[in-house]
Structure formats: C-alpha cells, structure tokens
Amino acid sequence: LCADAETLSAEATTKLSERILLNQVYHLETAATIVMKRLPQLPRSVILSGSGEFLARLIASKLPDRPSLISLAEQLGPEISAAACAHALAVLASEAED
Questions:
Q1: Beta-ladder partners of 71
Q2: By CB neighbour count within 10 A (0-12 exposed, 13-18 middle, 19+ buried), where does 48 fall?
Q3: 64: left (phi over 0), alpha (psi -120 to 50) or beta
Q4: Per-residue pLDDT for the chain (98 aa), expressed as one digit of tens each?
Q5: Whole-angstrom Cα distance, residue 76 to residue 81?
Q6: Contacts for 43-50 with beta carbons within 8 Å, 24 or more apart?
Q7: Are 21 and 59 in contact (CB under 8 A)?
Q8: How far apart (Å, rounded) are the C-alpha atoms in residues 54 and 39?
Q9: Is the alpha carbon torsion for 53, 59, 62, 63 positive or negative?
Q10: What is this structure's pTM?
C-alpha cells in the first residue's frame, strides 16, 4: 500500500493482514488438496516446522480425518525447526544425485 502509521489506521492494517492471512491459507489449502489427492491414503501425521508452522496448523485443522501434528519447534527447538526445510531439501538433492 505504500503507507505508514500516519496514513493507514491500525484497524485498516489489521484488516489488511487478515485478508493476507486468508489468502495464504486458501492457496496453501488448495495446494495441500492437490497433493493429498495424489496420495494412496491421507497422512496420519504431519510434521510442522519453520516460521509457517501456524499456517500449517490452520490447514491441518481443516483436513478430513485430522492427522496428528508433530511440531519440530516443540520437540527440538525453534532453531532446528527453522532449519528443517533446508535440511530436507539438501537430503532430497543428495538422493537425486545417486
């Protein structure tokens, strides 16, 4: 919006952030639905990690047969949770080279 606190009220900022959240959730739900339709069965567990964990919780709460949620931030700490996606990509890349 190219605005600051003098030109955009706190209420307008809150409404804008809520719209952005709903938009993100919609797109992530759509992507998750596409992926789950390709699976032979719905996942029983979902591992959550990184700064988007709160979004994943919202989406997982709407899934049919709600899976159990495993939070890496709760299990291993926020630093390891934040690095989990990068680690997973590195493992996948190394497996692809084999």
A1: 48
A2: buried
A3: beta
A4: 677 878 888 898 899 999 999 999 999 999 988 998 999 998 889 899 999 899 999 888 887 778 899 999 999 999 999 999 899 899 999 998 76
A5: 7
A6: 43/67, 44/68, 45/69, 45/70, 46/70, 47/72, 47/84, 48/72, 48/73, 49/73, 49/81, 49/82, 49/84, 49/85, 50/81, 50/82, 50/84, 50/85
A7: no
A8: 24
A9: negative
A10: 0.71
What tokens does 85 get? 């996606």
**Both tokens of residue 69?**
């949620």
Instruction: Give me the residue label for tokens 């938009």.
Output: 23
Find tokens 């998750």 and name the residue.
Answer: 32
Tokens standing for residue 93: 């890349």
